[in-house]
Task: inverse folding
C-alpha cells in the first residue's frame, strides 16, 4: 500500500530524458534558471549540511560522493574524475544523483548527472562571474575545449552577456569540435593556437583542462590587471592549473573552504591564506571585486549544494515535461515489517 506521504516508485530521469529536457526548455534558459536556483541556495547557505566530498583516489582518478541537505530534502551526487579516460575513448567525468525526503528518508528522484553536472558547473561559473568579473565584460578566453567547454561558453553568454569566446586546447581537434558546436549560437568564436593568443583582450579567463598533475595553464605574466579568472579544472588533490604567483596576487573566492583547500588551486598556498566565501558576497556580508585593477579568481571545485540545486530544478520540471520513468526502487511491502513475505508472494 502506498501512503499519501511517500511514493513507492521513484521518478528516474535518464540521459535521454535530460537531453530532451534541455532541448525542450532551451539550453540558455536552463543555464539561466540553474544560475538563479544555485544563487538562491547560496543565499541560504548556512542552513545546509556541509561536508567536503568523500573521495576515493586511485593512481588514475577519483570517485566521489557529494552529499548535502537543507533539512527538508537530502541529496547526493556520485561523480568520477579520470583524466586518462580520454585516451581510452571514455569520458573524464560521469555522474548520477539522488534526492530524498528527509521526513521519510525515501528517495524522490534519481537522475543522470553527467550532462547536469556540465550545466550546473557552467551555471555556477557564470553566476560567480556575475558577482566578480569586471562590469560589461564582453570577451572570455576558454582554455580546455573538452566536454565542459561549450556549456561554459553558453553559460557566460546567457548569464553574463559575453559576446566573444577565444578557444585554446593542446589538442586542436578539441578546439575544432568546440568551435563547430558553438557555431550559429550568437557568439563570436575565435580558435587560437596558443593560450597567450586566447587571452588577448579577454576580461574573463576560464581554465577547464583535465590533467592529473600540477599543471601551469596560466603563468603569472599572462594575467593582466583587472581580469577575472574562472578556474574550473583544478579540482582534485595534486591537480591544479594556475601558477602559484597568480594566486598570491589574486582575490580568491571559493565555494566551501574546507573542501577547496584540499582540492582547489589554493592547495598550493598556506592553509590560512585568506579566501572569501562566495555565498557571503552574494549575501552582502563580504566584498566582491573592489577595484578595476584587481585580479579576481573563482577557485571552483564544484560543491554539493550546486548539485542539490540542479536536482531540485530537474524535479520541478517533471510534471511540466513528463520526461521521466517510474523506477520500482523501494521494496514497500504491504505490511512494513513483512519484507520476507514479499519474496513468498512473488514466487
Ligand atoms: P575533458 O577531458 O573532456 O576536456 C579537457 C580538455 O583539456 C581536453 O580537450 C584536453 O586536451 C585539454 N587540455 C589538457 N591539458 C591542457 C593544457 N595544458 N592546455 C590546454 N588544454 C589542455 O574534461 P572536461 O569534462 O571538460 O573537464 C575538464 C576539467 O574540469 C576536469 O579536470 C574536471 O575534473 C573539471 N571539472 C570541474 C568541475 C567543477 O565544478 N569545478 C565540474 C566538472 C568538471
Result:
Amino acid at each position: 500500500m502506498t501512503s499519501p506521504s511517500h511514493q513507492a516508485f521513484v521518478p528516474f530521469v535518464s540521459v535521454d530524458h535530460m537531453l530532451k529536457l534541455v532541448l525542450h526548455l532551451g539550453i540558455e534558459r536552463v543555464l539561466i534558471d540553474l544560475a538563479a536556483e544555485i544563487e538562491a541556495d547560496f543565499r541560504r547557505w548556512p542552513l545546509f549540511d556541509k561536508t567536503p566530498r568523500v573521495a576515493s583516489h586511485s593512481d588514475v582518478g577519483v570517485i566521489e560522493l557529494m552529499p548535502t541537505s537543507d533539512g527538508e530534502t537530502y541529496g547526493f551526487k556520485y561523480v568520477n574524475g579520470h583524466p586518462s579516460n580520454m585516451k581510452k575513448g571514455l569520458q573524464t567525468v560521469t555522474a548520477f544523483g539522488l534526492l530524498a525526503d528527509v521526513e521519510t528518508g525515501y528517495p524522490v528522484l534519481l537522475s543522470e548527472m553527467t550532462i547536469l553536472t556540465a550545466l550546473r558547473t557552467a551555471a555556477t561559473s557564470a553566476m560567480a562571474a556575475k558577482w566578480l568579473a569586471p562590469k560589461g565584460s564582453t570577451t572570455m578566453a576558454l582554455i580546455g575545449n573538452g566536454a565542459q567547454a561549450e556549456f561554459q561558453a553558453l553559460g557566460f553568454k546567457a548569464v553574463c552577456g559575453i559576446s566573444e569566446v577565444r578557444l585554446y586546447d593542446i589538442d586542436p581537434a578539441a578546439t575544432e569540435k568546440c568551435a563547430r558546436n558553438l557555431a550559429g549560437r550568437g557568439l563570436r568564436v575565435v580558435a587560437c593556437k596558443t593560450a597567450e593568443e586566447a587571452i588577448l583582450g579577454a576580461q574573463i579567463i576560464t581554465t577547464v583542462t583535465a590533467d592529473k598533475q600540477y599543471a601551469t595553464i596560466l603563468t603569472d605574466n599572462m594575467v593582466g590587471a583587472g581580469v577575472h579568472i574562472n578556474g574550473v579544472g583544478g579540482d582534485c588533490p595534486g591537480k591544479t592549473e594556475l601558477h602559484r604567483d597568480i594566486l598570491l596576487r589574486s582575490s580568491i573566492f571559493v565555494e566551501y573552504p574546507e573542501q577547496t583547500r584540499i582540492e582547489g588551486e589554493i592547495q598550493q598556498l598556506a592553509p590560512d591564506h585568506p579566501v572569501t566565501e562566495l555565498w557571503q558576497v552574494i549575501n552582502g556580508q563580504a566584498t566582491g571585486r573592489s577595484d578595476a585593477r584587481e585580479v579576481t579568481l573563482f577557485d571552483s571545485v564544484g560543491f554539493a549544494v550546486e548539485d542539490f540545486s540542479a536536482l531540485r530544478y530537474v524535479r520541478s520540471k517533471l510534471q511540466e515535461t513528463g520526461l521521466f520513468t517510474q523506477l520500482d526502487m523501494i521494496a514497500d511491502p504491504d505490511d512494513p515489517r513483512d519484507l520476507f513475505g514479499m519474496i513468498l508472494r512473488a514466487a
The pocket of nicotinamide-adenine-dinucleotide is lined by residues 81, 86, 92-93, 117, 121, 143-148, 169-171, 174, 208-211, 215, 217, 232-233, 235, 300-302 (CB under 6 Å). DSSP finds twelve helices and 17 strands in the chain. The chain has two domains: 6-115+305-342, 132-303.
